[in-house]
Amino acid sequence: MIKLMIFDHDMTIVDSSYAIMACFNYVARHEGLPEVSHELTMQYIATPIPTFCEGLLGEYRPEWIKLYRSVSEKYERELIKPFEDTIPTLTKLRSMGLKLAVVSNRERPSLPLQRTGLAGYFDVIVGAEEPYGHLPYKPNPAMIQELLKHTGIPEAQTVYIGDADLDIITAQAASVRAIGITKGNFSAEEFRLMGAWKSIDSLSELVPIAQEDAVH
Fold first, then answer.
1. 87 and 35: one domain?
2. According to the model, what pLDDT value does residue 32 have?
3. Which of 72, 97, 103, 144 is the S-S candidate for 174 at Cβ 3.0 to 4.6 Å?
4. Are residues 144 and 176 in contact, defined by beta-carbon separation less than 8 angstroms?
5. What does the pLDDT look like over 80-101, one tens digit per residue?
């Protein structure tokens, strides 16, 4: 029986693609480079920032990270939005008695979750710097392992939901079941080949998965 569902943040429960695009376009304008489209931005979702820069701007310069971060809070505040099915799904899962958590490579994911009004839906929010001190980034499983240690919920009763190969690898390393969501760049077939337990197109599909698992 599933007792704990852990979620990645970006492109899993919120659409952060427009905020990312706006930050990169700020860098592009500053550097006199062509602005990038949403379609191109989506092609590099969930890749490391150097790869993002090379794909969107043609090269990577370390100083661009400072430029990006100088406007990231502004654009994230304005442009990061929960997916349409996020709040109804989280509400239903909580009513079923499941514990919900977020594990993200963001240093303090509680901040964007507070801004989007989602923080209150989660029992625990874990990032690289909160709430357990500095932990290694995914795909190192430490954030999930630390969360399980504090909740006392075993791996067998836990699932991790994410939009990228990194999330599947992390879940497997933590010995929890992985669910891939096709909001980013990976298809259901690709998630299957990675060894994901299940794949979904919409968060709402988690409700029948939890209901079915409770019966078995």
1. no
2. 96
3. 144
4. yes
5. 999 999 999 999 999 999 999 9
